[in-house]
């Protein structure tokens, strides 16, 4: 099964400490949940500064835990907004973002003890 998060990176960071692994996954879950709320609100209000802040807040986690699919979606959205502003394509971007974050949150929820 293809996963959205790289659990090997999580396991490497946890170094065999299962309690710490669970805490990491919980922190990632809340980080993505916060991103989902703040990014969607910023898109809805067309607030570029808030969009940028939401992306930057989660950026370290994206790379640290191999969240490549979500990183790609956010990067494409950034490029889209820089070149076309808030065109009709933003709605497709928003839907792709929601789909990815839904799947990631579901995946992480299944990892909870």
Can you characterise this structure?
This protein has 113 residues and is an all-alpha fold. 81% of the residues lie in helices and 0% in strands. It has five helices and no strands. It has helices at 7-14, 18-44, 48-64, 68-84, 89-111. The mean pLDDT is 93.
Percent helix:
over 70%
What is the oligomer described by this structure?
single chain
Ranges with pLDDT <50 over ≥5 residues?
A: none
Beta-strand proportion: under 5%
The major beta sheet can be summarized as: none
What shape does the CA trace take? elongated
Give the termini separation: 20 Å
* Helical segment count: 5
Element string (H = helix, E = strand): HHHHH
**pLDDT average, as an integer?**
93
Q: What radius of gyration results from the CA coordinates?
A: 15 Å
Structural class: mainly alpha
Number of strands: 0
Explain the layout of strands and helices.
Elements: H1 7-14, H2 18-44, H3 48-64, H4 68-84, H5 89-111
In short:
This protein has five helices and no strands. With 113 residues, the protein is mostly helical.
Give keywords.
single chain; mainly alpha; elongated; 113 residues
